[in-house]
Design a protein that fits this description.
Thrombin, subunit H, Rossmann fold, 4 domains, 4-stranded parallel beta sheet, 12 strands
Length: 447
């Protein structure tokens, strides 16, 4: 990367905004580049997958077709449909990656003046130093971001200026794409995966609405991709109990479904809200032995593979079924890596990667189960409609209602919707109801 200083000002008619943005697995992005076969440039689409190299700062640009070539190196990566630039493409001709905008700003701080979007960290996290900190606790924080521990972690830091509180904020800053490059050089042995904290809020002096709004602004609705939320200074918020009950508790309760991990920072052990926080779902599930956890993940991957196979067979039989991202094969490959390193005796590597793998698999399986439940509901509803259609057709025959043009038309429409081509279940339901109404009208008219 290079930030160029022009010899004279250049006033562009318009420019693409550089945007801080949480990136998620399987997110679709657009890239415009100049491949060797194209003189005028061309668009291509890709999906973001996992982390790449170096230092896990890059994200892989994955395409099922031919890879993105060298002509795309340096090209902006855009988020559709907004057109915001969320990264820069890098390619060696065999594999392509994206450097996120936040990572770019971490290495080129002057770039931040042109960025839009909310930073991941509040200022109190962003201004930390490595002086006067409890580095032992910082390592504990870094280990949790790497995957160790339960989905909801309650942390007691002491006063905001205490070594433990400073250590906590340092650990959070090290996990931020925009802050990590400037801190990692000072502490090379403390390097959580960049971007493993998605939003960190200092609740001190803030209302519940302010904290909730900050989280919602950064996280956004709808996604179930893995995201980590840090809320510090909860007992120094304007109303700590209200904050825990109305903002934090709903997030913890839905953490498994929404793909969330929560770090909840309190200044004092005696704070009443601490007891409530420790009773939240997900705070008391310590990890078991490595081999047991790997075995459990293997069972989940097998379940996910079966769900995806079922989805591919059944989804085309109905209209409006959301696309289910196929992840079982890739997650199975990650699990194979864990097994290989485990067999080789590299327990440290396995412990570092295990948590990320567990959460990725859990989130994928939860999404798959929801998709499976949706399809199963459609199959059940279609079977019910077919049974009703058959029952009333039999009733029509019992009452000698044959060669009735209106009945034939109504029956034919319902039959086609239920048996021919993808089924629009709502439309089919209306068609069956219409046929039943005609049958009943004919029978009651005779009486």
């Amino acid at each position: 990367m290079a930030l160029l200083k022009l010899a004279e000002p250049f006033r562009a008619a318009e420019s693409a905004p550089l945007r801080r943005k949480i990136t998620v697995d399987d997110q679709i992005v657009d890239v415009y580049g100049f491949a060797e076969t194209s003189d005028s440039g061309s668009w291509t689409s890709a999906t973001l997958a996992d982390t790449g190299v170096p230092g896990s700062e890059w994200l892989r640009l994955h395409r099922d077709a031919e890879p993105i070539t060298r002509g795309f190196s340096g090209a902006p990566v855009l988020e559709p449909p907004s057109g915001d630039v969320i990264g820069m493409a890098v390619s060696n001709g065999h594999q392509a990656w994206m450097i996120p905008v936040e990572t770019m700003a971490g290495h080129l701080p002057a770039l931040s003046r042109w960025l839009t979007g909310t930073p991941a960290l509040d200022d109190t996290f962003a201004t930390v130093t490595h002086d006067g900190v409890d580095l032992t606790f910082t390592r504990e924080v870094v280990a949790w971001f790497a995957g160790a521990g339960s989905p909801v972690w309650v942390v007691i830091t002491g006063d905001a200026r205490s070594p433990r509180a400073r250590a906590f904020r340092l650990g959070v800053a090290l996990a931020d794409r925009e802050r990590a490059p400037r801190l990692s050089a000072l502490l090379p042995d403390l390097r959580p995966r960049p971007g493993s904290v998605h939003v960190a809020v200092d609740a001190a002096g803030k209302t519940s609405d302010q904290v909730g709004g900050r989280i919602a602004e950064r996280i956004g609705p709808g996604s179930t991709a893995l995201r980590t939320i840090v809320v510090d200074g909860i007992d120094e918020a304007i109303d700590p109990d209200h904050l825990v009950r109305t903002v934090i508790a709903p997030l913890a309760t839905s953490a498994g479904v929404l793909g969330l991990r929560l770090v909840l920072g309190f200044r004092h052990e005696a704070s009443p809200a601490v007891t409530v926080a420790r009773s939240l779902p997900g705070t008391a599930h310590p990890p078991g032995p490595l081999d047991d956890r790997i075995k459990a993940m293997a069972e989940l991957v097998d379940e996910l593979a079966a769900i995806e196979e079922h989805h591919q067979v059944m989804a085309p039989r109905f209209t409006g079924v959301p696309r289910l991202a196929l992840k079982a094969r890739r997650l199975g490959g990650a699990l194979t890596q864990l097994r290989t390193h485990r067999t080789a005796g590299d327990a440290t590597w396995v412990a570092r990667k295990l948590g990320d793998c567990e959460r990725s698999i859990t989130v994928a399986v939860e999404a798959g189960r929801r998709g499976r439940a949706g399809i199963d509901h459609l199959v059940s509803r279609r079977a019910e409609l077919r049974a009703r259609l058959a029952a009333y057709a039999e009733m029509a025959r019992d009452h000698d209602l044959v060669e009735d043009a209106a009945l034939d038309t109504a029956y034919g429409r319902a039959y086609r919707l239920l048996f021919e081509g993808p089924c629009d279940i709502e439309e089919a339901g209306r068609a069956v109801d219409a046929y039943i109404a005609v049958v009943r009208g004919r029978i009651e008219g005779r009486g």
